[in-house]
Amino acid sequence: AEETRDAINAANRALPAWRALTAKERANILRRWFNLMMEHQDDLARLMTLEQGKPLAEAKGEISYAASFIEWFAEEGKRIYGDTIPGHQADKRLLVIKQPIGVTAAITPWNFPSAMITRKAGPALAAGCTMVLKPASQTPFSALALAELARRP
Predict the structure, then answer these.
(1) Bridge partners of 95?
(2) A Gene Ontology MF term for this entry (predicted)?
(3) In 10 A of CB 128, how many CB atoms?
């Protein structure tokens, strides 16, 4: 429980700086993560195979699939706009502002250890939220490898 609180507190401390980045800046960071995942696809796949037994060809496919979520949400994050909705009177409008809500959390399964992480982290990070992630206990190294690539400058 203390470890979880520490992780949430760390994500909360990181939130103001991450939230303050423009959507384009966040997209550039996510794009760099995507590029690193593809650059290290063979190593990530080999790690996944050793960790949970997925055949190497399938593991390599999963890394590509996982990276595609990061690429997709990096681009979608640049299109997060608010909405203007007609009101109940002709001279009235409702304005919807889309903004980061705070720290998000995810618990991911063992069977798609990389894809389920990026599918959850991609939209949260693109939207300006920080995230605490608890990977499956059977596949912690896949998660750590992705985190290591994500934190690289």
Answers:
(1) 84
(2) succinate-semialdehyde dehydrogenase (NAD+) activity
(3) 21
Q: Which of 64, 7, 22, 16 is nearest to 40 (CA)?
A: 64
Domain boundaries, the chain: 2-79+101-151
Residues in the chain: 153
pLDDT at 12 over 90: yes
Closest CA to 98 of 87, 86, 119, 83: 83
What's the CATH architecture for 2-79+101-151? 3-Layer(aba) Sandwich (3.40)
Q: Are strands 103-107 and 93-96 parallel, antiparallel or unpaired?
A: unpaired
- Whole-model pTM: value is 0.90
Alpha-carbon distance 42 to 31, whole Å? 19
What are the tens digits of pLDDT across the range 79-91? 887 788 898 998 9
